Amino acid sequence: MQQLIKWIDFSVIGDDRGSLVALEANKNIPFDIKRVYYLFGMQSDLPRGFHAHKELIQVAVCVSGSCDILMDNGKDKGVVKLNSPSQGLVIDVMQWHEMSNFSDDCVLMVIASDLYDESDYIRNYDDFLREVNANV
Ligand code: TYD
Fold it and tell me: Taking every annotated instance into account, which residue ranges of this chain make up the domain Sugar 3,4-ketoisomerase QdtA cupin (predicted)?
């Protein structure tokens, strides 16, 4: 069973001109980075996600604004707030996740361990529970 909530604290290089965070494969991001995507222009009352991945590992970083993310490993569930560009939340394999409560200025950047592959998604919650429990 995957640990439910795994944060990564990024070092912030800051001076009078502002702040800088560098994300590097197999250093502060725990895999080879194959893809980066970002979500913006969300509506606070239109949640997204509602899936798990079989093999993909991701790190979600709210680079602007805030949102909530419900994490569910099939046994435990918890909601955490993403509101810092200096913290990443690991979305590990077989972690059902739902993002909601987006601020108007929310930009959610996601670093992924592989290219987009729809066949890696589990989009049905009952299928997710069946697969998690089959692998216990
Ligand atoms: P999806 O992963 O379902 O979004 P969310 O989990 O945030 O609700 O993706 C939405 C759509 O975008 C879906 O049609 C697949 C497509 N998509 C890509 O083409 N490439 C990508 O890298 C991602 C993440 C999604």
Answer: 5-132
